[in-house]
Amino acid sequence: MQGRSRILVIEDDPMFRSLVVSLLRKDYLVAVASNGKNGLEKAIGHRPDLVILDHQMPGWDGVTTLKAFRKNPIFHGTKFVMLTGDATKETVVAAIQAGTDDYVIKSSFSKDMFIGKINRLLAPTIVKAIVPTARKVGYAPAESAAATAGSTAERSSGAATETLDEPFSEESSAEDIEVEYMMDEWE
Questions:
Q1: Whole domain around residue 40: which residue ranges?
Q2: pTM greater than 0.85
C-alpha cells in the first residue's frame, strides 16, 4: 500500500460519493467526508494528494471549501477537482478562480474521463526551474563585455546583478490561458 496516492472525496450525496469511491479505491487510498468543514479537518490530520469536492453542499459549498484549503500552506502541493451539477459558465469560472485544478460536470460524468483526469493530476511531473530575469546594475565596461558574451557563470554569480522581485507579467496571462483552456474543454 505504500506509495499509493491519497485522495479525499468531499461529497454530500451518499450515492455519488459511493460511486466515486468505488472507482478510486482499487488504485488509491481514499477517505471521505460529507461536508467541507469536516473534509478540511480530516485533510489537516492526513494530508491528501488530491481532493475531489462537490460544488453544491450544505454549509460550506465547494468554492468556500476550496478557498479554505488554498489559504492553508500545508495544501500547497495538493490538487483539487471540483464536481458540479451546475454546468453554467459562471460556476465553472468561479471554481477555476477559487483554485481548482480541474472540474467534472456530473451530468456528463464518464468513468474513463474522470479516471483520466485523476491520473493526469497525480502523475509525477518534471518541474522546470524558472529563472527570473536579471539586469546588470552599476557595472564597469569590462563587465559589459562579459554580459554581452553571455557567460552563464558570470550572469549567475550575482555580484553585479539585481533580481527583479516584481511578479512576472506572464503569471496573469498564464492563468488566463489556463482558464481559456479549461473553458474550451467545458464548451
A1: 6-126
A2: no
